[in-house]
């Protein structure tokens, strides 16, 4: 099994953050294939499909380029998933996170593993069977985006059926925030943050990255000023004042306004 991370030049800095966190939390991870397209507007699906068509290995772990690990993976569950998929070719997908499903049925003679039904196809971190991914992607335009792939593949999976299995983990608590990042990931086989949200850095993870010696690249003057303020300790002072008074300082709005006024290209 190898780890496939598709990206492009315009997202290289985000992919580098994810690779640094991967090395931090999973130093003995599988071999990484960083599929990097040169153009800002390069198609998403086409390069992946072409790459997989020229591979012999049947199992790969697909992660998008902004999936930054935030804790050590449960490698025992990941190895078990790979083993089960190697033994049973009818399994097309094994998510490594909490995955929505209408039903979860215990898998016969396989404790701790459930078979999912009534599920969409989502590009969360998961082990894929190469042949099933290619079957779902057949005939799609090379320019198909991740979100369009999910929608089309969900419908095609009703015709090209394969099992979707997962570790039997409890439904996570919602802690607040966007989608995946709003969930408690303590039981996930592969816990990670979405470092981007709607094409922009997810600033909720800025402190997390800073604690690891990492930082988002500046988008504009506002990010540069915010970084200086953090370095000299001004941010901490403002945070304490805001907590004491119960009033928002308006720093984020000013930061975004400065980014729009003087963007960095």
Topology:
Blueprint: E1 2-8, H1 12-25, E2 32-37, H2 45-53, E3 59-62, E4 67-69, H3 75-87, E5 91-95, E6 103-106, E7 113-117, E8 126-129, H4 130-137, H5 146-156, E9 163-167, E10 192-194, E11 196-197, E12 200-201, H6 206-211, H7 221-231, H8 234-245, H9 251-261
Parallel strand pairs: 1-2, 1-3, 5-9
Antiparallel strand pairs: 3-8, 4-10, 5-8, 6-7, 7-9, 11-12
Helix pairs in contact: 7-9
Describe it for me?
The mean pLDDT is 87. The protein has an eight-stranded mixed sheet with strand order 2-1-3-8-5-9-7-6, with helices on both faces. The protein has a two-stranded antiparallel sheet with strand order 4-10. The chain is an alpha/beta fold and 265 residues long. Strand 6 and strand 7 form a beta hairpin. It is 36% helix and 19% strand. The chain has two domains: 2-197, Spore Coat Polysaccharide Biosynthesis Protein SpsA, Chain A; 218-261, no CATH class.
Outline of the structure:
The chain contains nine helices and twelve strands.
